[in-house]
Amino acid sequence: MKLRNLVFVVMLLCCFAGSALAAQPQAQEYSVITTEELKNMLDAGKINPLIFDARTPEEYEEVHIKGAISLPISKLERDPALLQGDLARPLVFYCNGVKCGKSKKAAKLAAGLGYQHVLVYSEGMPVWEEKGLPIYAGPNYEAKIETKRLDPATLKTLLESGAGTFQLVDVRDKNEYDEGHIPGAINIPAAAFAAGSKVLDKEKKIIVYCNSGGRSYNAYRKLMKLGYGDINQALLADWKAAGFPASKL
């Protein structure tokens, strides 16, 4: 066992033991864990949590953390008895990232039922998948989607309007972004897009672009899974072909 995994397990067990022994009438309902902490917990094998996917059955069937159990929050709210079991066994809930509230609702419900060690994996399915960790992929996992494309002239008009109703995101690597990007764009590289998406506002139009479409297509898919509504795609190659300027750092 790697030393860091052993240290993490010991710390987590101590935390569990402490929370069980301490008399705290205002005790926290649940604890939030990171991707690395959940991975270490599973790798070490000393703690055997139940992992619950609080998303819809359709999302679960498309892709889920390997070994997770489907328990949609809507179903759990109707029938809390579905969680009957060992109150001392750790429970981990997850959904579609830090802006998804389903896992937190499920965790609060579990804590209210008397479960002693309730954890929320807040980074959720998009980040777990993005980091290449073990997943179950269903038959529709690679299904092609149609993106909503913005042509260069429409994008330029939107940028010149000065409206605060959208966010433009360059999903290329930072060195590419620094060499030249569409004015006003922020940079969230595609390789860590789900993890970096917390800065994006779900109430705004999100426009993702790369040079030729591959990476922005993947970012578009991740935004769909993260629950963003108004998603758009553009191409830097088209922007340049139209003769529009690029900003450099």
UniProtKB/TrEMBL annotation:
SUPFAM superfamilies: Rhodanese/Cell cycle control phosphatase (SSF52821)
Pfam families to which the protein is assigned, alphabetical: Rhodanese
CDD domains reported for this sequence: RHOD
PROSITE patterns on file: RHODANESE_1 (PS00380), RHODANESE_3 (PS50206)
Chloroplast is among the record's keywords: no
Keywords: Signal
Signal peptide region: 1-22
Start and end residues of each Rhodanese domain: 45-137, 162-248
Keyword Secreted (UniProt): no
InterPro entries xrefs: GlpE_sulfurtransferase, Rhodanese-like_dom, Rhodanese-like_dom_sf, Thiosulphate_STrfase_CS
Annotated PANTHER family: FAD-DEPENDENT OXIDOREDUCTASE (PTHR43031), PYRIDINE NUCLEOTIDE-DISULPHIDE OXIDOREDUCTASE (PTHR43031:SF1)
Protein name per the record: Sulfurtransferase
Species name: Geobacter benzoatilyticus
